[in-house]
């Protein structure tokens, strides 16, 4: 008995010392930063939806400077807000920082069967990115435009109905209906619009809405428990409720249904037609191309075919659904708020839209003529880089960064908010909404690493051009018909909330029909 007690005591002291050793990691290296609490580090400060984590990082940057360290349980993070270092991590030293700073509860990216593009790393990522890239090419987007525009027209119909008699509407809600409709149709085989009756909506909303603190914190604090918790999550979803599990199941059903349909067609000799959506594109991505890669993570040289497994098809459709839903709806919401509170900008944008898009249907080529619209979207994303936390990497091979030694396993997080409002980069009016600052088309004179709303480097957002297309099309349709006006329900300034992405709590708006159109 005494021996067991002694062993347990020694083990506890050992474990606690290990946590303390990690907690003091940055201090021991002479790098300042928030200490938080022993064992927890700064974890508790970064899971508060009322104080979005990017805002907290920005506050710490003001306190500790442009490079500081923090811990979250057993994870060690360096926070940077110097564009040159961002460029170094995300581009120049990509080979040393090719992984993301995943929470262990998200699974092991080298072992998960359904690993997706956002989580994958090394040659698994390269293969998925190579296969997925054509899906977002100009050619492919040109084909998708008709579906996106159909959802725009459908949304306008709902807007007209629900604003009758001058009633204000909550725009974030409308935009989420829109982006889910688009992504459901282009990624998940949904055949017609499901707007305002889509059963998937509460689940995708919950993926970003609820912080699910305990689950995610456990990943930092007791990472070795994560594989067990994941097993429980997938095998008994009613015990550890995770909306992502429901979405993955629905996605898997859609993919399996399509595979069965295609096999049945093949049996009776029906020739495959044009791909209907991403599921078809991924299933068709069978090619004889074979990549031979060697990677230190996968000790031997491996032969990798370009064909995706069914699980991988499910993983990619899932990530496009989740990645494409929230981000674009938020960006549209922030743009609408800024347009309504800057009537001169809105007027100028309406003039451009009226000039360039006169026919009822807007063509793909017309979209590229909307230069001022592009400035408005970029400027919105500069002030509200809603997916700021995605700008992060994990060090996969020890290296140095700005003279600091970085060990394998250390995470690097960019403080996007500070960079995007740095007067040294943007001038003394950095806090102001001024789309004109993008007009000279000289983004390239900005120092590299200074505008990172979609990230930079090989892992830059793959959906960026789709997001631009969706936003341009929808804003065009709305602004031709309405002028966005604030109303008494509009929160000015917006209250920002959220843990994974940063969102306005509400965006109430009046849609005033345009008399001139
Ligand atoms: C305004 C809209 C969007 C914003 C602001 C945004 C932002 C971002 C950011 C910051 C990253 C990390 C980039 C990096 O690490 O360098 C990212 C990655 C990613 N985004 Fe987006 N995104 C948007 C729309 C979309 C859409 C529409 C999709 C898909 C349909 C999408 C899918 C992805 C994927 C799959 C990745 C991971 C790419 C990789 O690691 O190779 N995003 N996004």
UniProtKB/TrEMBL annotation:
<dbReference type="GO" id="GO:0020037">
    <property type="term" value="F:heme binding"/>
</dbReference>
<dbReference type="InterPro" id="IPR036396">
    <property type="entry name" value="Cyt_P450_sf"/>
</dbReference>
<dbReference type="InterPro" id="IPR002401">
    <property type="entry name" value="Cyt_P450_E_grp-I"/>
</dbReference>
<comment type="similarity">
    <text>Belongs to the cytochrome P450 family.</text>
</comment>
<keyword id="KW-0408">Iron</keyword>
<dbReference type="InterPro" id="IPR050476">
    <property type="entry name" value="Insect_CytP450_Detox"/>
</dbReference>
<dbReference type="Pfam" id="PF00067">
    <property type="entry name" value="p450"/>
</dbReference>
<keyword id="KW-0503">Monooxygenase</keyword>
<dbReference type="GO" id="GO:0005506">
    <property type="term" value="F:iron ion binding"/>
</dbReference>
<protein>
    <recommendedName>
        <fullName>Cytochrome P450</fullName>
    </recommendedName>
</protein>
<keyword id="KW-0560">Oxidoreductase</keyword>
<keyword id="KW-0479">Metal-binding</keyword>
<dbReference type="InterPro" id="IPR001128">
    <property type="entry name" value="Cyt_P450"/>
</dbReference>
<feature type="binding site" description="axial binding residue">
    <location>
        <position position="461"/>
    </location>
    <ligand>
        <name>heme</name>
    </ligand>
</feature>
<dbReference type="GO" id="GO:0016705">
    <property type="term" value="F:oxidoreductase activity, acting on paired donors, with incorporation or reduction of molecular oxygen"/>
</dbReference>
<keyword id="KW-0349">Heme</keyword>
<dbReference type="InterPro" id="IPR017972">
    <property type="entry name" value="Cyt_P450_CS"/>
</dbReference>
<dbReference type="GO" id="GO:0004497">
    <property type="term" value="F:monooxygenase activity"/>
</dbReference>
């Amino acid at each position: 008995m005494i021996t067991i007690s002694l062993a347990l005591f020694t083990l506890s002291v050992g474990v606690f010392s290990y946590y303390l050793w990690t907690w003091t990691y940055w201090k021991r290296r002479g790098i300042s930063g928030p200490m938080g609490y022993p064992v927890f580090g700064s974890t508790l400060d970064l899971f508060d939806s009322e104080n979005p984590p990017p805002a907290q990082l920005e506050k710490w940057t003001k306190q500790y400077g442009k490079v500081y360290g923090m811990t979250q349980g057993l994870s060690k993070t360096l926070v940077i807000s110097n564009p040159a270092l961002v460029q170094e991590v995300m581009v120049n030293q990509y080979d040393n920082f090719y992984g993301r700073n995943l929470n262990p509860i998200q699974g092991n990216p080298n072992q998960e069967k359904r690993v997706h593009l956002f989580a994958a790393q090394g040659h698994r990522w390269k293969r998925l990115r190579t296969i997925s890239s054509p899906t977002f090419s100009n050619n492919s987007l040109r084909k998708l435009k008709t579906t996106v525009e159909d959802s725009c027209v459908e949304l306008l119909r709902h807007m007209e109905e629900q604003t009758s008699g001058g009633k204000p509407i909550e725009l974030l809600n409308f935009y989420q209906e829109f982006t889910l409709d688009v992504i459901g149709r282009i990624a998940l085989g949904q055949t017609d619009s499901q707007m305002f009756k889509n059963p998937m909506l509460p689940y995708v909303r919950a993926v970003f809405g609820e912080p699910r603190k305990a689950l995610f914190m456990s990943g930092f604090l007791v990472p070795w428990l994560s594989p067990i918790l994941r097993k429980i999550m997938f095998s008994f979803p009613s015990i550890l409720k995770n909306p992502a599990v429901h979405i993955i199941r629905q996605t898997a059903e859609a993919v399996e249904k399509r595979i069965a349909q295609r096999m049945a067609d093949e049996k009776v000799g029906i020739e495959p037609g044009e791909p209907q959506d991403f599921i078809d594109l991924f299933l068709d991505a069978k090619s004889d191309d074979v990549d031979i890669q060697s990677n230190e993570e996968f000790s031997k040289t491996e032969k990798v075919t370009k064909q995706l497994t069914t699980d991988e098809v499910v993983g990619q459709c899932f990530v496009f659904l989740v990645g494409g839903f929230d981000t674009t709806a938020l960006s549209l919401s922030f743009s609408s708020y800024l347009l309504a509170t800057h009537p001169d900008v809105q007027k100028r944008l309406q003039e451009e839209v009226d000039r360039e898009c006169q026919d009822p249907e807007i063509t793909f080529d017309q979209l590229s003529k909307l230069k001022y619209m592009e400035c408005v979207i970029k400027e919105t994303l500069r002030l509200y880089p809603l997916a700021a936390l995605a700008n992060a990497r994990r060090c996969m091979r020890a290296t140095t960064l700005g003279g600091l030694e970085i060990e394998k396993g250390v995470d690097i997080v960019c403080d996007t908010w500070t960079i995007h409002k740095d007067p040294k980069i943007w001038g003394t009016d950095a806090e102001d909404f001024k789309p004109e600052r993008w007009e000279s088309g000289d983004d390239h004179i900005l120092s590299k690493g200074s505008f990172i709303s979609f990230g930079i480097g090989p892992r830059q957002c793959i959906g960026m051009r789709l997001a631009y297309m969706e936003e341009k099309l929808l804003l065009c349709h709305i602004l031709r018909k309405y002028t966005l006006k604030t109303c008494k329900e509009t929160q000015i300034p917006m209250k920002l909330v959220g843990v994974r992405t940063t969102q306005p709590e509400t965006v109430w708006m009046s849609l005033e029909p345009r008399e001139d159109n």
